[in-house]
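Ticket #4471: structure output looks truncated?

Reporter: J.K.
Steps to reproduce: submitted the chain below (635 residues) through the standard prediction queue, then opened the result file.
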Amino acid sequence: MKALDVICLGRAAVDLYGQQIGSTLEGMGSFAKYLGGSSANIAYGSSKLGLKSAMICRVGDEHMGRFVRNELASVGVDVSHVVTDKDRLTALVVLGIQNKDTFPLIFYRNDCADMAVDIKDFSAEFIASSKALLITGTHFSSDNTYKTSMKAIEFAKAGGTQVIVDIDYRPVLWGLTGLGDGESRFIASADVSKHIQTILPYCDVIVGTEEEIHIAGGSEDTVTALKKVREVSDAIIILKLGPLGCTVISGDIPNNSGEFEVIKGNKVDILNVLGAGDAFMSGFLRGYLRNESLEKSANYANASGALVVSRHGCAPAIPSEQELFYYLDNAHNIPDPSQDKELNHLHRVSSRSIARSEIFGFAFDHRKQLYDLAIDCGESPKRVVKLKNLFLNSIEETIKRSNIDENSVGVLIDDTYGEEALHSIAERSWWIGRPVELPGSCPLEFEGGGSIGSKLQSWPLTHVVKCLMFYHINDPIELRLKQESKIIELNSACIKSGHQLLLEIILPGDLEEHESTIPQILNRLYGLGIKPDWWKLPALKDKSWEQVSDVILQNDAHCEGVLLLGQSASMDAVKSSFEDASKHKICKGFTVGRTIFYEPAKQWMEKKISDQELIDLVSNNYIELIKSWKKYREE
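Returned output as attached by the reporter:
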């Protein structure tokens, strides 16, 4: 039994993708950063589709190299053989979408890290631990990478590992075009054809577009090229035919293209063909390496490619396993995947990189309350900035004293007084939430006004967008519609920006609460198409928790869960609320604020206690709540 399904060897880079559709690269104003490089994309995509994949490559000893490693690891790719090269930089690609047929592209690969991959970077045992070794074409284009790739193939043959080659022909990377012409997909070259043909006899599967088969076979006639490939290789040949689909040839080559048995593709509106081949390969591997039929594997490949051409980006556009099967079941009703809400929701939730089973949240995103406290104590509001930095010291103290996993630590911090605090934890793995609501607003308004979508563009993607809304199902209709309109706007902005959304619901004090009130509110918001990643809810009784669980699971089985809020209740009251909440799996923990910090903060503002005493008192309260939650959860 092999430990891995596929090991990918080849390009690993960072794509800087122009965000303005319909522009030349010269006219681009901003770029999105994605994982790139054909082999890295395939390792990433096959892992998202449920395979155990690994990557052999090199990355630079810098920020982009860490990004490549982290992105691969985030979806479960084995990165044990991603080597850090201290002498070279990670490769970059700058690209854009000018129109459906024009994709300006520049490769920045001069002596880049992935082209320095070496025989010493892997062992025969590692190659033999996988069902398949996949190598993409660029890594046969230089003496060093050719030698390294052939050694990997030698190990594969000795270890019973299949060899799969994706021709992935880029003329610029073979020195056949000017450096700025990364977009060209085909230039005939007898030398390149001859070179590629030295590899083909060792292959079990060969994959390529018509142009790539042309270069492999040394002819611009597809059938002639295929026959040349067959002369030197008994491999299964997968010929990609773009929107038409593909054909799989495991025996003799037909005498004309009309005899091809075409496995039809999925018709979609095309935004971007870049990355479609990597998705196609990932989908094919998903079936082929699980011993499914070639036809079914090709259907997976066609569908994966179709989804990517409808989206922005390469690696992040590749579907997850659940997303792929949903699309296959419903493709006849989805002419434009980019507009299908359920499909896009599945794609969105599959991009979550860290699953958190519990969160111990310390909320100090309070602005008005701490401003008022400072004024009441005769202090400048600037003191609130220092206070929030001291709260971080309390968290550090809590981590040391309670020995909790950093992934379980949560904070809610504003950028009005907490900007320094937010910046100082940029490299931590904590769950970080950040408010957008204007404090106390009802109807809801966003702090700072303007476009909420524009505001989120400047936020790190690791920050969860938190929005508090005072809301009741029996609110006057005009008020309710205003509030709902704002939340719909925010939900849409988070979907576009890629940020997670936490929606906090607090009931107005003048309206009656029943056990079904919160469940009814959630049902109403789900009915509007709002699917927050997290809910933050007040203390509930058992029956209400059961109803909340049912509503969430019926409307969004992928919801991360509920966090319990404190509402400035006493320590005993908050701990009591844990007893009911902890019985229900949908509740993942708490985000409590004033119960933890208010009294120590007040004494500190009044200069009755020192900085260290504040840190200790707040830490004591935080630890007390963590212990209480753990106690009830474990019972």
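Triage note (M.O.): checked the attachment and the full token line is present. The two ends are 40 Å apart (CA to CA).
Status: closed, working as intended.
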